[in-house]
Amino acid sequence: MQSATKHPLLTMCSTTQAPKGHCLLLFIFLGIIIMPSNRLAAQVTAVQTKPRIIITADPELDDNNSLIRLLLYSSDLKIEGLIYASSQFHWKGDGKGTKWFVPGREYDRFGLSLCPCESWRWAEGERFIHDIVEAYEKAYPNLKIHNKQYPAPDELKSKIRYGNIEFDGDISNDTPGSDLIRSLIMDNEPGQLYITAWGGHSTIARALKSIKEQYEFTTEWGAIKQKISRKVVLLPSGDQDDTYATYIKPNWPEIEYRQFRGGPNYGYGAQIRASEENAPYLTPAWMKENVSDRGPLGALYRVWGDGKQMVKGDVVDYFGIAGHTTEELKKMGYVVWMPVQAKGSWLGEGDNHTFMNMLGNGLRAYEKGTWGGWGGRSLVNANVPNVFGMSADLSADDMAKRLSEQNNQQATEEMPYPNFFPQAQHDFAARMKWSVTPSYASANHAPVASIEGPLTVMAAPGQKVRLRGTAFDPDGNKVTLKWSQLPVGTYHGKADIAQADSPKAEVLVPADARPGQTIHVIFEATDDGKPALTHYRRVVITVRGS
Predict the structure, then answer these.
(1) Which of residues 225, 245, 261 is at a domain's end?
(2) Tell me: the pLDDT tens digits for 406-430?
C-alpha cells in the first residue's frame, strides 16, 4: 500500500498558516465537513447519513457488552429506542405468581426441571440499559471532545423503555416499549427504520399487531401496510421467542429480515477457533489494556472470570467465576455449556452483527443487506445451524464448535469475504480510549477517505474505470491507501485492479460480465497511529451493454 500524498494546503491548514477560506474550500473538495471548534484537527468529520435504529435487548451478558460498543458509535447513529425485551433465556414474570413453561426452552434442557416458574434469569429491578447509559454519561465529556456528534446523555435516557418482558413470546398487551416502536414505525421521518432483536421479537411483534388491529379494516390499511413493509428492516439475533415465525413473518411477510453471515465472529467462544490474525484481540492482556480498564464503560464490560453475575444464583451464568475447571463448575451446580476460558479474556458481543454495518466507516453497508461491512453480509443459507435450537445433549466443546460455525459461516464464492475483525477491534479500542481521554491530541482518530466523482458508475464489459481517491488524517499521521474488490456484487468473478496501492486506480470490467451485474470496489485509508484506524469509500460499478 502506498502512503497518501499530503496536499501542501493541508500542512498549512494544520498549522493555521493558510487563510481559513482556502482551508474550507480544500476540505469541501476532499469531502470533509468543518465543524466549529478552536482546534482545527478536532473539526474534521466525514459526511454520513445517520441510520435510524431501535435496540431491543434482553439482559444477557453479550447484550450488555454489545450495548457498550453500540453507545461508543452513537455518534454515527440516530438511536430512536433502547428497549428492554424478554426472550426464552430471560423473562421477568408478572409479579402475580403466574407460572410459565414452554417445552424445549433452556430450563427444559441440560437435565434441568426448574419450570413452570414465576420468572427466568431476570434480576429484580433489572436496569442494565440504564446502568450503561449512566456510564456513558460519565464518559460523555471526553467523548464529545473527540467527536461532536455524540448525543447528549439525556437524549439517550429519553429513549429507554421496558417492553414485553413478563413472559417470553407474550404479545397479548401493549407496553411502553411496544408503544414507542409503534409510534416510530408510523411516523413520517424519511428513510428506513432499523429494529434490532437482541432478545426475542415479542415487543416488536406487539407493536406491529397493534397497528394491524387499528387499521386492518379501514381504507388506509393497504397504504399503511405497504409503507411499513418498505420502511422497517429487522436485524435479528435469531428468533429467540418464536414470535417472528409465529406472528411477524405470517402477517408481515414483506418486511425485510436481515441475517448476517461471513463477517467477524463477535460471539461467545470467539477465541476458541480464532485465526492467528484475530486471536491477539481476544486475550486477557488486550482486553485489559483496551477495554476492561477503560473508565466507567470498561468497568461494566463483562470478561471471563470477572466475579460478576447478571442474576445472583443463575445456574447458567458461570462466566464470572475464575479458578475452576468445567467438572468443578458442574459439581457446583452450574450448567457448563461452553469451555472455561482464561480469566480476563473476551467473553462475547454476540449481537454486534446487527449494528456493525450501520457504522459511519464509509462502507455504507446499511444501504443494502447484501452490501456487507464489519457485521458481515446478508445471506440466505438454510444450512446455517440455529444456536437456539441446539440439543440438550451437546457437550460444552460441541456447543462451542456449533457457535463458532454459526458465527463464521461463509458464503461459497471465489473470493473470501475480508477479515474486518482487526480493523473493528482497533476502532473499538480507540473509542474506549476516547471515553477516558480529555485531550484530542492524546488519542488517535480515523483518517477521512474520499473519492473524486460519483460513487456509482456505469461501464461496459472490457472497459476501464479510472478512480481517484485521497485521504486526510486529522492527527497528521501517515496514511496508506489500498483499492480492493469486495465480493458482494452480483458479478461473482474477479475484476483486475491496476495500481491498487496508489491514489489512482483502474478497474477493468471483465469481458464476461453481463449487463446489470455489479462490482463493488473499496477504497481503504489506514493511518499509522496507535491503534491504526481505517476509513473507507465504496464505488459500485454497474455493467451496461457494450
Answers:
(1) 261
(2) 444 433 346 899 999 999 999 999 9
